[in-house]
């Protein structure tokens, strides 16, 4: 809210009719946006809408093809390669730029250490950092090592580093993507303090509820075009989503087919212990979509990495189709038709430096071997099929996977896992960092799989999607199951209560 | 069947002709032209055969190194391994004379010993790297020292010489020709073709590339990472044993100076050929060309007085640096983005 400061309506940074082309390909068309001191201005749009390119132009990393940038009302050519920081414009990337083994104060003063006759003024730097941390309400010591901090704290260190360089415009690319709900709230409280100091904040996020909560104004981009800029209080997450995709999203989630309660159990887990996971017992029926909810670090991924042979199982029994199994490797799990799709598609899912074909067939490669030789024709055919089936959009098949958008990478990863025709699919964070349109496609795909009789486990930190597609939701907390929800009991409130430990493990069906 | 796929690959290569993939071939052609201009005898049949034969040792070892490097590893021990294997081969064959005589059987025994030792030594490198979880650089730096000192110990600081009679039996393996090409060149050709097929046409080769690109992705894609990585070192060891088998009859001896710096020459051949040192992209064809380029430089220097033969290392070093600089392939782009 404008707090009556005199400068709160003056735009600090103003982009006028910015267009950008890469070679012959236009990606931004005449975008106008102004950023005022002391406001949080959210920038939203689907993947590929041009948000990243626009942010890079705002911070000087790319020059615009046409249009003007005004800084304090004066036309400016922003210097390239991060030198815009000297003008007070700082871009904070999703991948943080901190030296992990150095302390908070060393990081904050990195590259412009205070010295006297060539000797570091350690005390002065320490005091300066301590007062900055106190100012934003960050409860860490200047001498803490970055590697010991939580992600939210690291993010705030980046922000403090920017402030210490007198940043007036902070541009943040999905700062909350990796934060838990609690961390996000802490982060937002600190953002409020920055606003009060008169810092202008550009905030990019796919989490529309958060945008509603924190932003003062919202600018929507679609297909490289400016759609609208509106005060956040006039918008709801639904209207924002509609502006982003340009159509009604009533069919975001597919119609729910009733789960067949008499279907045979395909996976039964009893008393599983692995790492943080303690005494897990659950089962999965044929054709069921089973959601796994919980806070980050609750051990949801560990359960399934242990089941698939990626993590050691300490004790407990796993039965597939009623037969006890113990997988030593992912290959053993694959042989019985179990596939695990990692949430970390860039580090564990796809070979970013390779093309689509080797990525697609890597998991199912034994299926593409004919008389000891790789059957490249069959691989090509598989790629053509996958591109059609999963609607993967890439410029051409020779594109490196690392250059594809997050949504298309996710669809390729899904296609890769499905090449083995698994009977049990475990999808960890199916829609992390992808746009609404692709989310919708993935939800419909999951529903179609279940209708065909494939059993699907969906691990997700986004409650709406668990509620939208799951037949049953298991909530975990600190390595244990705290609740199981079915039917109309699957609500955000119930999930949150179990996830936060507010509700004890119920003996019978828990009522809200 | 494989002939069809090879043709297909050739056309595909011709279509995507660019400096990055054609670089080593262009460099070799340029070197040959220079060689010919300096002295026409460079392209004489005798010199070409000599050049190919000398390339065979490093070339065969470098084919193995291509697998190790593509899968994200490195093997520094190959030169010492060759020396140690040569030493044990000679000791074994000399000792077998009394019981088996100096005929083909003894030579075959020596070759068998060589292959077993090569595979064993490669397996040790691989197991220490994967099961022992020690970095490949450290493991092979260690085994490099061990193998080198072992050959010195076996030779008691001097030279191990092969019995004169066995030398007569074994000699043709290095000195004889088949269809106009020396035996070592045939071995080189066969190893190169098998290596190319293994890397480009089998699941194993694809797995090596995947592991070198990103081990975590490989693991999550149901690839037995440890087994594949160990296999690359075993292949490397096998290649070293083959190179040793054709090397021993050349001099009929082994000493602490046998195979010195072969590991660096092999790695250089791999890198000049376009394989990426940090893994994830390997080219057997490039490796072959890399080995030929290295040998050709030395050969040209022998033919001319313009540059001292002692500067052989300098020329090789320059070629390696220039090759890698050109292969980076982004030197044009980085300039553009700075504008």
UniProtKB/TrEMBL annotation, chain A:
One of its GO terms (cellular component) is plasma membrane. Keywords: ATP-binding, Cell membrane, Hydrolase, Membrane, Nucleotide-binding, Repeat, Sugar transport, Translocase, Transport. Residues 13-248, 261-503 form the ABC transporter domain. CDD domains: ABC_Carb_Monos_I, ABC_Carb_Monos_II. Its EC number is 3.6.3.17. Transmembrane segments: none annotated. Pfam families: ABC_tran (PF00005). It is an enzyme of class 3 (hydrolase). PROSITE patterns: ABC_TRANSPORTER_1, ABC_TRANSPORTER_2. One of its GO terms (molecular function) is ATP hydrolysis activity. Its main location: membrane. It is a peripheral membrane protein. It is found in: Cell membrane. The keyword Lyase does not apply. This is Ribose import ATP-binding protein RbsA. It comes from Pelagimonas varians. The lineage of its organism: Bacteria, Pseudomonadati, Pseudomonadota, Alphaproteobacteria, Rhodobacterales.
From TrEMBL, chain B:
The keyword Transmembrane helix applies. Keywords: Cell membrane, Membrane, Transmembrane, Transmembrane helix. InterPro entries: ABC_transp_permease. Pfam families: BPD_transp_2 (PF02653). It is a multi-pass membrane protein. Its main location: membrane. It is found in: Cell membrane. One of its GO terms (molecular function) is transmembrane transporter activity. The keyword Transmembrane applies. Coiled coil: none annotated. The chain crosses the membrane at residues 21-39, 51-69, 103-124, 175-199, 230-248, 284-301, 307-326. One of its GO terms (cellular component) is plasma membrane. It comes from the Bacteria. This is Ribose transport system permease protein RbsC. It comes from Pelagimonas varians. The gene is rbsC_1.
